[in-house]
Specification:
This protein has 14 helices and four strands. The chain has 381 residues and is of the alpha/beta class. The protein has two domains: 229 residues, no CATH class; 108 residues, abc type-2 transporter like domain (abc type-2 transporter like fold, 3-Layer(aba) Sandwich), CATH 3.40.1710. It has a four-stranded mixed beta sheet, with helices on both faces. The two termini are 28 Å apart.
């Protein structure tokens, strides 16, 4: 046992010496995750506000101007231009200077004064579906409020008392992220994506590099066992991944104010299992990749894309096709995103997240067993 630890320690020291001799690699595995976090957190946002809006008022009455003031007073719509022809709507949409166009037809005030239903056209640029959906919802709500105001004014003119009528007043409260900040939603998931990239890619590359440099054969004929070599290779990247995890967590809390409401040790356990699962995935890639370039490409395809698209990081999993929902179970990021957001935002602990922790445990064991078998077959050739 003692001799095994000595051999593993020798490999660990060798790996850290390689990192110390290559500042670019150290920069890639320590500083790059921080840069990625800052870039993603500031660049990616699901907040939709100040949508540029053009108003085409063909009525030009005090009533139409009062209606336009509703849009101007809104924090969602940003009226950037007024026009008098429909051609200006096409020009604004083509130039991306406006995303919403409000067209008030001629006779708008006269129709309302006669007690009839007036119509207003709200045209939305659908090239950005998220902004389009939110713009539609806000526009419908704004017009409903305006319609209610007109109804109350009409009742007052008729001398009717509407206070005796039953009304429905919803009281909406958002849990876990009351301010609906995109950073609170994104950063716990970003942590998983960044860790997946660092651990899978670097592990996939490190052993392939040994083959390319011709040092793997020397290690295989040494007294060192295959499992000792794998542990020695994985341990430095495990420590670096934990350091990245602590650094990203600290930056998320200090710079972006992301809350940590749940059990820290549940997050730590989940992170450790996720790191082991990702390292095992990297080992499998390194065992089957014939070259360094192939290992890099496979690592990016398997680590980044599934972690970004099939983990729930950017898109809710229940909104994607059922087939892809089943495919998402093949990647550990799916479980870790649930753990991370549960601990950070929902105050969850071990009792709520044990199914995801168990899944990560099984995944890590399966990946390490598969990689051991693949390396055993490669060594036997």
């Amino acid at each position: 046992m003692r001799s095994a630890l000595v051999r593993i320690g020798a490999i660990v020291r060798k790996e850290f010496r390689h990192l110390a001799r290559d500042p670019r690699m150290l920069l890639a595995v320590v500083i790059t995750p921080v840069i990625q976090l800052l870039l993603f957190a500031y660049a990616i946002s699901f907040d939709v506000e100040n949508v540029p809006t053009i108003v085409i008022d063909l009525d030009q009455t005090q009533t139409s101007r009062t209606y336009v003031e509703r849009y101007e007073a809104s924090t969602f719509f940003d009226v950037v231009a007024h026009g008098g022809t429909m051609a200006q709507v096409d020009a604004a949409f083509d130039a991306n200077s406006a995303r919403v166009a409000v067209v008030i037809p001629a006779g708008f005030a006269r129709t309302l004064a006669s007690g009839e239903a007036a119509q207003v056209a709200v045209l939305i640029d659908g090239s950005e579906p998220t902004a389009a959906k939110v713009s539609q919802a806000y526009s419908v709500a704004l017009n409903q409020l305006y319609s209610q105001q007109l109804t109350r004014q009409w009742a007052d003119q008729q001398g009717l008392d509407l206070s005796s009528l039953g009304t429905l007043e919803p009281r909406i409260r958002t849990w876990y992220n009351p301010e609906r900040k995109s950073s609170d939603f994104l950063i716990p998931g970003l942590m998983v994506v960044i860790l997946a990239i660092v651990t899978v890619q670097q592990t996939a590359v490190t052993l392939v590099r040994e083959r390319d440099q011709g040092t793997q054969e020397q290690l295989e004929v040494s007294p060192m066992r295959q499992i000792e070599l794998m542990i020695g290779k994985l341990l430095p990247w495990t420590l670096i991944a934990f350091a990245d995890m602590a650094l990203i967590t600290g930056l998320g809390r200090s710079i972006f104010g992301v809350p940590l409401r749940g059990d820290f040790w549940t997050l730590a356990l989940g992170s450790a299992l996720f790191v082991f699962a990702s390292l095992g995935m990297g080992l499998v890639i390194s065992a089957i990749a014939p070259s360094l370039d192939t290992a890099n490409i496979l690592a990016m395809l398997i680590a980044f894309l599934p972690a970004f698209l099939l983990s729930g990081f950017a898109f809710a999993l229940d909104q994607i096709p059922v087939f892809l929902q089943w495919v998402s179970y093949l990647f550990p990021a799916r479980f870790m995103v649930t753990i991370s957001r549960g601990v950070f935002l929902k105050g969850a602990g071990f009792m709520e997240l044990w199914p995801e922790l168990a899944a990560l445990t099984v995944y890590a064991l399966v990946m390490l067993v598969i990689s051991s078998v693949l390396y055993g077959r490669r060594s036997a050739r």
